[in-house]
TrEMBL record:
Keyword Oxidoreductase: no
Organism of this sequence: Planifilum fulgidum
DNA-binding region: 23-42
A Gene Ontology BP annotation from the UniProt entry: negative regulation of DNA-templated transcription
Key words of the record: DNA-binding, Repressor, Transcription, Transcription regulation
Name of this protein: Transcriptional regulator, TetR family
Stored Gene3D superfamilies: Homeodomain-like, Tetracycline Repressor, domain 2
Source species taxonomy: Bacteria, Bacillati, Bacillota, Bacilli, Bacillales
Pfam name, any one: TetR_C_1
Length: 199
């Protein structure tokens, strides 16, 4: 049993049962070992969640092309972020609840900072804008997952009511629309030459 194997098993269990049912004991059961043996590799559940988030980051493809415009870098990075989160059940909650202290997460943050700095934002604006983008993606994915769950329940009800045809929004289209609004705001601020965060 290795740390990497434990993390992979935890992600598999997450997809099967969700975050609320994930525990060190439940994870040990799925691996066929005693819970105490996990603590030789991982200190506690908090560290486990951080390592799971770091592993999910490996699914993200952040563009680092030197000649690519900052806007395209940020766009592609945020799209990849959303796609990675959607591969794992409740992963957005894990990212929201754990500090970004692991290597892969720190590298992604650094890449985002560089792209925003390339745009011409001040250091403080880079930090605040990166936080805004992170919160947008996490919040959107949380709502996207909840919407899918509600739609599934509603779909079962609609099977019994053939006359009901709800108009379901295209979540990917909504995500891109919101992201472009944020990018437009950054572009507008840069063109306006506003350096004061209070303006």
């Amino acid at each position: 049993m290795t740390r990497e194997g434990i993390i992979d098993a935890a992600l598999s269990l997450l997809n099967q049962e969700g975050l609320n049912r994930l525990s060190m004991r439940r994870l040990a059961d799925s691996l066929g070992v005693q819970a105490a043996s996990l603590y030789w590799h991982i200190k506690n559940k908090s560290e486990l969640l951080q390592l799971m988030a770091d592993k999910i980051c490996e699914k993200m493809d952040w563009p680092d092309g030197a000649g690519m415009p900052w806007r395209e870098k940020v766009r592609r990075g945020m799209v990849s972020y959303r796609e990675a989160l959607l591969q794992y059940r409740d992963s957005a909650e894990i990212f929201a609840d754990t500090p970004p202290l692991t290597p892969n997460r720190l590298r992604l943050i650094e890449s985002l900072y560089k792209a925003l700095g390339q745009a011409g934002l001040s250091h403080e604006e880079v930090v605040l804008t990166a936080d805004l983008l992170n919160n947008y993606v996490i919040g959107f994915v949380m709502e996207e997952v909840r919407f899918a769950e509600r739609s599934g329940q509603q779909g079962e009800e609609n099977e019994a009511r053939p006359d009901s045809h709800p108009v379901l929004p295209d979540m990917e289209k909504r995500f891109h629309y919101g992201l472009e609004i944020i990018l437009d705001g950054i572009h507008f601020r840069l063109n306006r030459g506003a350096s004061s965060l209070g303006e």
